[in-house]
Amino acid sequence: MMALFFFTSNASAQAAAFIQTDKLHLAFQSGRSPIALWAVHTGDSSDNKQWKSLLTRDGSGHLLSRHLSLEGIDVGKGRWERSKNKDEIVYAGSADNGRLTVRKKIRTAADYRLVLQIEIENASDEPVELQNDVRLVLGPGLGEYPVKGFGVAESMYSFVEPVVSVDGEIAGRSEDFLSRISSPFQYEWVGLHSRYFALLLSPLGESAESLADIDLRHQKHGNSTTIPDRYLPWLSINLGIKKLNPGETVHREFLVFSGPKSTAALKADRSDFSGILFSGLWTWMAALCSGMLWILKVIHGFVPNWGLSIILLAVLVRIVMYPFARKVLSSQKAFAEVQKNIQPEMQEIKRNFRGGEQSERILELYKHHGVSPFAGLKPLLIVLVQLPIFIALFHVLGRAFELRAASFLWIETLAEPDRFFNMGISLPFLGEYFNVLPVFMAVTTLLTIKMAPAPTADKSGRLGQNIFLIFVTIAFFLLFYTFPSGMVLYWTMANVLHLLQQFIVENRRTSLVK
Description:
The chain contains twelve helices and 21 strands. The chain is of the alpha+beta class. The chain folds into two domains: 2-280, Distorted Sandwich (Beta-galactosidase, Chain A, domain 5); 298-513, no CATH class.
């Protein structure tokens, strides 16, 4: 196995205990920094080349992560060993001058799941009171490093955040996390997650009743690393052990999820961590995101390319909206004709009246011709109806692991900007890549607005319209420039379909007139 070879090639890891499955590679060695390897498989196939390390190292290669280690208790010489059961590794050590025996067991469960068992036993004839809280550590970091070149959106494509589930509600980001754990709570699971991977702990048995004390910190790096502190959060969970009577043993047990944030991985084996996928969104928006991802997966089942699936999704949405959009476009065309006919009267009112009287007379003019002055805004309804779909697609492409490596044409991944070529310099806001797809999107947006039926304007009115068109085009270009290319592809295709529908409606009106 590639991940295991990487580990065993290190001479310092010769006497290590390891867990090796088709989903996980873990290795621990004896000493005060026991963790040596933590890698998860990134795909559903058995391709051993696709592995992701969940360990963070500084610029000099020094390991920063201390996943599943204990703090607050000085464990002396201990040793990790692989038990007779090949799916389990065991640690045994001592603390408090040999009065305490510390044991940890890690065994595989289903897929990306492990079970961690911690036992602390008073091996002496006297009670032992612990000076410090015994805490279980996750972090620092999760094998995620800063990405460069994406301009203002860099933090969207790479991050590490704490996350906790309390009463089914997910709190992420440091501020929300700290707010949630500042008051009494009982959590279902807690951990760290990045854009595509997660390391989560879910207390089992009596542990679930007593482990509500969680601390969040950020590793302070030195000169040996350029990793920002925000990439190095770490959690410590108080195991609630204060005093042990002679011969007493305290047990703590956790289910550990360590893997990709894919729907299949998160929902396996009767333990559901899928709430992490679209956490932080309103319930209805999270449901829409889940539905959008499901529809994309269904389409992808017939068309094995995610880019084509997104295009077909845009076509599907347009087909569903066609009767509504046709009615809106026809109404807009009729309104434009009415405005064209009443232009002389409108100009007369504007010349002869001012203020409130002018507004009243314009409203009376619209009423006389049987139209609403707000009828010209009806085309915006088409955009507003599609807006929740676009927002949902933004989150799906930004978070769904299934789309992580979705390529299309020249686009390496639809979950990032298309990066047509590297400009050689990094521009403020835009970054260092030239993305061509936002250009197509801006052009189609311009054509969509330009081809919309509108009343004939005078020279100054046409100038104002042209300035508005230029402003909207630039605004859309800048807004979409750093977005995932899958979203830009969807919006571009939606524009093309809208233009096609306008062409069809216009041709039908022309044929009816003839």
